[in-house]
Fold this sequence. Notes:
single chain; five-stranded antiparallel sheet
Amino acid sequence: MSTLSDPMYGWALDARGRPIPIGAARRGAHGYYCPICNSPMIARKGDIKQHHFAHEQLIHCSPEAVAAAIGGRWLVLALGEAMVLKQPLKVRWYIAEQTYEADILEDVVAIVENLPTPQGKAEIALKASDGNIKAVLTLRDPVDKIQVERFVAAGIPVVSPNMQRFRSGQVSLESLLEDATIYGGWQLLGKITDEQLITDPDRIRTILKKSVENPPHQFWRSLESIPPHQYVLRVDDQKLWLPPEVWQTVIGGSLNHLSNLKVIIKDWPIEEDGSVIWLFYVMLHDTSAIAVRRFASPKEAHASLTFVYQLKRTTAEEVARLLATT
Length: 326
């Protein structure tokens, strides 16, 4: 028999072979067994120790391995059940000191496990009615940051549940998503205001590229506020939502500090004609602005600043103008 010092498991398989977390199990032996060694397990749900599964006989399967073996399958089944029942599942995140939320199952018609994609394998993919991936869930701990960046840059948000809570088995689908980390969550918002702010990465990149398509190949403008949203960039009749977090994901670049001035700089080589586009995200004295400039070749690319940014009255738009024109 197992002892009080045995490992505590958050997960097991039930008599039908379905993954079950300890939070959903009945106390005692009800056909539960280990997915690693196939040995019987008991659900211990007393009043003193943390609720957990235990092997009936002492066997050294690690709790982490057991959770990894079946936790993802449980999540797929739970998401599928919620999808069929049309149960909303909210995720929340913060951008620019504001809270946003979205239903990750809205318009989702399929839950696919281990789906190959151009960005890498999606552990759990939520596919929308148009055939595109609406979001990806990852159970890696720590997350693969490079792969996350690839998904988000392609317009696919990534949801990373709290893995410590996940391994414990003390979870429901709602609680697991409640404190999940959301990467690129703004792409779940669609039309986020009546102003139809643009959040799609490809559209943002295309609009910025076109802003310097014609002579003098220069563009700069301050970011404005369209309540309740800040960081809105107007390009002709289009409005792009570009908080710093969105810019870093969609455009990227290196962050440079000069006293109170912060500038994110990114270069885009243009293969078609050998030109290069420089993009600047400027932050100064609680103001923000964007500058874009196209050079005929990388050899001609340059940017210069005077010490005007050190003056208290200088705005980010003035710095952006200098970066775009001098």
